[in-house]
TrEMBL record:
<feature type="transmembrane region" description="Helical">
    <location>
        <begin position="125"/>
        <end position="144"/>
    </location>
</feature>
<feature type="transmembrane region" description="Helical">
    <location>
        <begin position="12"/>
        <end position="38"/>
    </location>
</feature>
<dbReference type="InterPro" id="IPR003661">
    <property type="entry name" value="HisK_dim/P_dom"/>
</dbReference>
<dbReference type="GO" id="GO:0000155">
    <property type="term" value="F:phosphorelay sensor kinase activity"/>
</dbReference>
<keyword id="KW-0472">Membrane</keyword>
<dbReference type="InterPro" id="IPR036890">
    <property type="entry name" value="HATPase_C_sf"/>
</dbReference>
<dbReference type="InterPro" id="IPR036097">
    <property type="entry name" value="HisK_dim/P_sf"/>
</dbReference>
<keyword id="KW-0067">ATP-binding</keyword>
<keyword id="KW-0418">Kinase</keyword>
<keyword id="KW-1133">Transmembrane helix</keyword>
<dbReference type="GO" id="GO:0005524">
    <property type="term" value="F:ATP binding"/>
</dbReference>
<protein>
    <recommendedName>
        <fullName>histidine kinase</fullName>
        <ecNumber>2.7.13.3</ecNumber>
    </recommendedName>
</protein>
<keyword id="KW-0808">Transferase</keyword>
<keyword id="KW-0812">Transmembrane</keyword>
<dbReference type="InterPro" id="IPR050980">
    <property type="entry name" value="2C_sensor_his_kinase"/>
</dbReference>
<keyword id="KW-0547">Nucleotide-binding</keyword>
<keyword id="KW-1003">Cell membrane</keyword>
Amino acid sequence: MLTRSTTLTGRVAKTLTLLTLILFLVFSFMAVLIAFIIEDTMIHNVLRQASQQTSYDNSAVKQVTFQELQQLGYTSQSEAQLKNRINAFAEFSADGKHYHFMIVDSGYLVTDSTPLLAVSQRVSGIIKLLLVALVPCSIITILTTRHLSKYALSPFLTLKERFLQPEKNSAELIRENAFIREQDIKQIADELAHALSQKEELLSEQITFNQGMSHELRTPLQSMTHAVELIAIKHPALADQQVYKRLQNSLTKMYRISEAMLWLLSDEPSQNTLSINRHLTSLQDDLHATYHAHGLSIKQIENGQLFLDIPTVVFDFIVYALVNNTVQYAALSKGKKQLQITIDKQQITLTNAYDNHQFEIADGPQHFGLGLLLVTKLAHRFTHRIEIKHDESTFAVSLIAGQQAS
């Protein structure tokens, strides 16, 4: 299942943040551990220096027997076990005091190390100080890693921006790829540009084929349309038959496709300004029939009046193509199927929302093949733009007015 907030930049930032915090905790632990080691080393040096003296009149270090050591509170090992120790130094706590002692031939050198345990006595304060320091360290780390991750991934982010621009063609991308310094990113970019080039060639071939077919079908379509009209005039009862209506709808669809393909490669500008709100109302019966046939509910929201400079037949072709895509997309989900058409001053948006959050998006915007690509080309032909958005719960496709990039 896709997550909206999951990006490579965010993943790298989280990883760097976690790594930095782990290093902070490790170094803090090592610093405290080293302080303990230094503290023990200093006390051991005091005992070692005392062992080199001939007399032990130093009040800080006293020579005692094992019985006297036990009287101080030592109970961990027996005298025989102490004599067999590899390490000559040991320590113990008793009656609120801490003692270090050293095993010598003549007995044991013991010192009350309680006043010398600066680290041990202040360990709770040190831990609190480190925890307090962890807060600003975490904030600085989070802010820093965001910039570091963006810098580290800047070649990838540049690549992403290039290939997500709908107006970019493969030739432009190949030229721009020559300036990529990172060889691994450049290799990926070249492969993507090559794949895009193949896709463009396939689309061009399909458009050329469709245009040729449109020319070939134009005359037969006109003849069939006139014949159907004559049949309706001579046999009015047939006009109400479902078979006749399906035939009429099929001819209308074929005519729409033929005209749209002819407009695609034509240089003639559009002389028609279409009121989308009013025209969409005239299509409502047909659209509702399409939705209801697939068990979908429909809701139309008008937030403003939208006017587009586009031939009516081309707009009809685009709308029905977008409707078919949202219908197909909704058919993939198993939840409640809802479709919404939203119109404002800049765009018309068809949105499919569903309840199945486990639904996975397989191939993104191009999941339905070349259909959306042809629609996109038609929109660009009249300086408009198609935009597709999707996540784990919605699929939205928009026709946006006059926003074709140069």
